[in-house]
What we know:
InterPro entries: BSH_RND-rel
Structural class: alpha+beta
Strand order of the largest sheet: 2-13-16-15-14-17
Keywords: Membrane, Transmembrane, Transmembrane helix
Shape: elongated
Organism: Butyrivibrio proteoclasticus (strain ATCC 51982 / DSM 14932 / B316)
Oligomer: single chain
Radius of gyration: 41 Å
Transmembrane segments: 21-41
Number of helices: 7
Protein name: RND related barrel-sandwich hybrid domain-containing protein
Strand content: 35-45%
Amino acid sequence: MAQEKYPKVTKYPKNLNNINIGVVFFAVIGIYIIISVISYFRKEHIVGYEVQEGSLSTNNIYEAIALRDEEIVESDTAGYVNYFAAEGGRVAVGNLVYTVDESGQLLEFLKSQGSDEVFLSDEDLSELRSQIVDFSSSFDEHDFYTVYDFKVGLDGTVQKLSNNSILNNISTLNSGNSALQSINYKYAGDTGIVIYSTDGYESLTPSDLKAEMFDSSSYSKNQLINNALVKAGDPVYKLCTNEEWSIVIREDDPDKVQEMVDSGYIKVRFLKNQNESWGKVSTVSNPEGDTFVVLTFTNSMITFCRDRILSVELISEDEKGLKIPNSAVSNKSFYLIPKAYVIKNNDNTSGVLRNKFDEQGNETSEFVNITIYNENDTEYYVDMDELRSGDTLIMPDSNERFAVGKQDTLVGVYNINKGYPDFRQIRILYQNDEYSIVKSNTMYGLSVYDYIVLDVNAVDNAGEADSQ
């Protein structure tokens, strides 16, 4: 009874013939796709770069100290100083620069005469506006101390303009008044540019400078204030008497210093207003052994006469051409083939006759197409993949032979206009750490808007990598 209730079950092996061939096919395709995806992401791909025209400048920014022929003028009388010459303006011998009010009663006297009101002309307002614009264009929030210099300078300009109006009023009042008789008029003893500040650098020469002086944060100057009380012997203004002036920079790299000296003249861009000028280069050393580079100018002194510390940019190179990244530049070797052995076809293709032997050992020749990448007076540069070292070439219409083997290297990039890397020679005009400027429209070279391989590491040694 138990055997009828629970019959015996026998398990048979699976039949391999029942495997679905479609499942196997799609499994193989799936594995292939996975391998292809992995290979794609592991493979170094070619990235294109469009060649553009541009320029390349080797720029160096320095903090420079300006040195000029400066003469400090001291007061010979005690009293209150009032300035009448414009700061940064030129005065001639005999021009009124300032007055000294010994009594200090001038302002009260003018008020009593109803002459204390000042009206600024359009020219006066233009001077103030120009001073504000110059400060705004050169202001750096990291150098906030310049705000105080600007404030003092602006106060001085306003008071100078006010004094000019007061001077006109004085001439119309009673010259016999005691308040007016105490005013001493001071005139320029020499021709030059008037500056109303001192800083202790006036008598320094380049060899007197020290390394710590080039730190702008430690620099300070004494602004000479209008209507301030001075005693005899105090400085009242200074006069810049020579249009020739210099800036001094500190450079610790001897190679850079020598490069500047060898150039003779360097183009300098003043960051304050972006003005550019050429400076004559020389060097000087101080007693501590520091070497400084001196750049001398014969113009623009009046523009920067109020500045002691200047931020400047030295532009040592300025080449224009095709701008390409250095990562695209490569070196490639070529066979040198005499021009007499190269045959030029009407379809602009080229080739050579190569000597060979047939199966019976008879000497014959074959035509081999070649690609020319450059040339000199007597030879063509030919791709090494198209010929073999030791090949014997036959000169057309002659029995002369040439053995392939001579090589040379060209500097170039890989052009991908046709979808595959094709080497093109370049002539580098100038190069820095990131870019090169190359000559455009050269034979066998590049033109603007060509596409090149951005990174030569993506191309194998034969230049046959596939473009992705």
